[in-house]
Amino acid sequence: xxxxxxxxxxxxxxxxxxxxxxxxxxxxxxxxxxxxxxxxxxxxxxxxxxxxxxxxxxxxxxxxxxxxxxxxxxxxxxxxxxxxxxxxxxxxxxxxxxxxxxxxxxxxxxxxxxxxxxxxxxxxxxxxxxxxxxxxxxxxxxxxxxxxxxxxxxxxxxxxxxxxxxxxxxxxxxxxxxxxxxxxxxxxxxxxxxxxxxxxxxxxxxxxxxxxxxxxxxxxxxxxxxxx
Length: 228
Description:
This protein has helices at 5-12, 22-30, 112-121, 124-149, 152-164, 179-185, 190-199, 217-223, and strands at 34-37, 42-44, 52-58, 61-66, 72-78, 83-84, 98-101, 105-111, 171-174, 205-208, 211-214. By secondary structure, it is α+β, with helices and mostly antiparallel strands. The strands form three sheets. The chain has a four-stranded antiparallel beta sheet. 27% of the residues are buried.
């Protein structure tokens, strides 16, 4: 499926493409396919050749590793506007984990061999990839610091605020995935996540299963110490 105007605007925000001149970006985007997948679809399995990386247009992706006993360990949860697996651009690379559509999903699929060729034509892209990977590393370090310093309630509040966005007033939504994946993203157990959601009722957050109501987004932002 071809990319549309909204997708184009989202893809232009991808840091790994920041080194492309506008004319080259337009040509690249016009040749980049999008994929629509249903919940539970596998994008790739752990150990598969890394033939593509992805940019999320709509929906959420769960990244996990599977043990020899078949038990899944949730590693990460990736949402709209995020890219993943772009560090797998090296030749003969293999995916170190599996990725599954945690919700109905639309992604832009970037072929790694094609992107390597593009880098040869536009060396600035190498710096873009380095910058993108560095940003992810910096974000990981920030998350580790938050896990050590922030209470579970504050981490959950910041996650809910990201979903609500800076829209003012109130918001309500369904959690995009099951609690085990959200808990993994926030480095806590599902039981801790459930307690934190319940305790956020004091600032106007109501949680009934996956249904969330935030009565005051500004209050949520202040609780998480974010700029509303």
